[in-house]
Description:
Elements: E1 2-6, H1 11-20, E2 25-30, E3 41-44, H2 50-60, E4 64-67, H3 74-79, H4 81-101, E5 105-111, H5 134-149, E6 154-158, E7 160-161, H6 171-180, E8 185-188, E9 192-193, E10 196-197, H7 198-210, E11 215-219, E12 225-226, H8 227-237, E13 245-248, H9 269-275, H10 282-294, H11 297-302
Parallel strand pairs: 1-2, 1-4, 2-3, 4-5, 5-6, 6-11, 7-10, 8-13
Antiparallel strand pairs: 9-12
Helix pairs in contact: 1-7, 2-4, 4-5, 6-8
Amino acid sequence: MRILISGASGLLGLNLGLRFTAEHTSIGLVHSHPLKELPFSINIVDLNEEKNARALIDRYKPDVFIHCAALADVDVCEKDPTRARQLNAELPGWLAEECERHAVKLVHISTDAVFDGRKEGKYQEQDTPNPLGMYAQTKLEGERNVLQVNSAALVARVNFYGFSLSRKRSLAETFLHTLQNGKTMYGFTDVIFSPLYVIDLAEVLLKMVEKQLSGLYHVTSPESQSKYAFGVNIAQRFGLDQSLIQPILVTEATFLTAPRSQNLVLDPGKVQRALKMNLPNQQEGLDRFYQDYENGFAQRIYSLQ
Ligand SMILES: NC(=O)c1ccc[n+]([C@@H]2O[C@H](COP(=O)([O-])OP(=O)(O)OC[C@H]3O[C@@H](n4cnc5c(N)ncnc54)[C@H](OP(=O)(O)O)[C@@H]3O)[C@@H](O)[C@H]2O)c1
């Protein structure tokens, strides 16, 4: 398959491109981070421009378009709501129209943050979202804009961690590098989430495409933990000092700009039934993250700038 990936310099897009390249032709789109020595082709484009976005499908003629580009920093979204709305809400709608017109499969990446976190237990696809900040609000608008015009599109609400160009795009990396440097870090004990290791997520998304799934899916681990526990588990797996992680309540954290949901736990039951498989639990994801690190995968990613 020819797989076009926007946001190919981002945490998710880069890992998707690297993972898919063995069996498929990946074509990456980046904006301000041109990459070097990649095993797939990279093209620079500003997707804030509607005409650039609308020209993509005609230009690259993919079989599948996985749209990962976004303004994904929740605090920046609060400060620049206009850019957040354009990239997270309007752009997905333009892309969905073009994919529909050219009969190209669109996979649109959304977020677990669309809910307010007040539910007891896991969120299902039919639960009513109630986004708390600009990031979540604009991502929800993006989902709706996609599904309104493209019934074949797949919208995946995700949460993931892995290795990124900046070395700090995911919480797992931030814990890892902070502890490796012997520094202290806060871990929220009252924010619960169910992230997947990004390479596991890449493989699940590919299976969903191969099965021709469409519509809205929660694509997260079936197991959840607090962000503090996540940090402690990383410390233990990598043999680092877990006492450097200071437990704190998010409600006490004065250093955050955007409001955050405390229950980010999604139910992946629908995708598990569709694929007839369980998605990785927290230990399985962490083991693979650790093994990839030991095999030099993180260094490989860091060397691509
Ligand atoms: N990280 C998470 O845990 C998480 C959780 C839930 C959902 N998500 C969603 O997953 C997707 C990927 O997130 P991520 O963490 O991989 O994001 P990221 O690391 O912040 O990367 C964002 C990507 O978007 C590109 N981009 C930004 N502005 C652009 C523009 N004007 N034109 C073209 N490209 C542009 C960036 O390109 P340059 O860097 O080259 O400028 C970069 O490749 C997003 O939809 C996000 O909302 C992420």
